[in-house]
Amino acid sequence: MKILVVVDMQNDFIDGALGTKEAEAIVCKVADKIEKFDGMVVYTRDTHKPDYLKTQEGTKLPVEHCIKGSKGWEISSKLPVASDALIIDKPTFGSKELGLYLESLNERNPIEEIEVIGLCTDICVISNALLIKAFLPEVSISVDSSCCAGVTPESHNTALDAMKMCQIEVKSVTAA
Predict the structure, then answer these.
(1) Does residue 147 fall inside a structural domain?
(2) pLDDT by residue (tens digit) across 144-153?
(3) 20 Rama sector, left if φ>0, alpha if ψ -120 to 50, beta otherwise
(4) How far is residue 12's CA from residue 68's CA, in Å, rounded to a whole number?
């Protein structure tokens, strides 16, 4: 079984409160990757409450974003998301629920490969890739760098280098 994890491809990270031109540039590539992927697609969605600015993250990044129920919280309408798609809401960078889900799935039906794409390479993509590696150290995990964007191009590249050091394969392909 192959799994594609699509991390936080939400409006606020693309062209909203924390959007970047680099994030906007990968949307079509991500949509293409999802459409062509032969396996299970799992989405994560950064999810905050209205009191976000009072949280630890909110005090360190004082920009309201991905408030549950807002337009910015929604996954981009430019991406194909099946009505029965698994979407995991996560209150912080990495999703323990995602790790537990994939671990349980692997026990029932061995996963041969997990590919991670999305936003932001240097925060949530790296957090989830490393978390998945911790839960499933013997499963092949990769990141398609052409379907990721970081807060800056430099921090994107730094995150990719860090993932390589942790035995996560970094690819630059858009075909599934």
Answers:
(1) yes
(2) 999 999 999 9
(3) beta
(4) 12
Task: State the Cα–Cα distance between residues 56 and 37, nearest whole angstrom.
Answer: 37
In this prediction the pTM is 0.96
Q: Is residue 176 part of a domain?
A: no
Rounded to the nearest 10 degrees, the angle between the axes of helix 96-108 and helix 126-135 is 40
How many independent structural domains does the chain possess?
Answer: 1
Q: 113-156 pLDDT, tens per residue?
A: 999 999 999 999 999 999 999 999 999 999 999 999 999 999 99
Q: Is residue 89 part of a domain?
A: yes
Q: What's the CATH number where 24 sits?
A: 3.40.50.850
Residues of the domain holding 50: 2-171
pLDDT computed for residue 172 by the predictor: 87
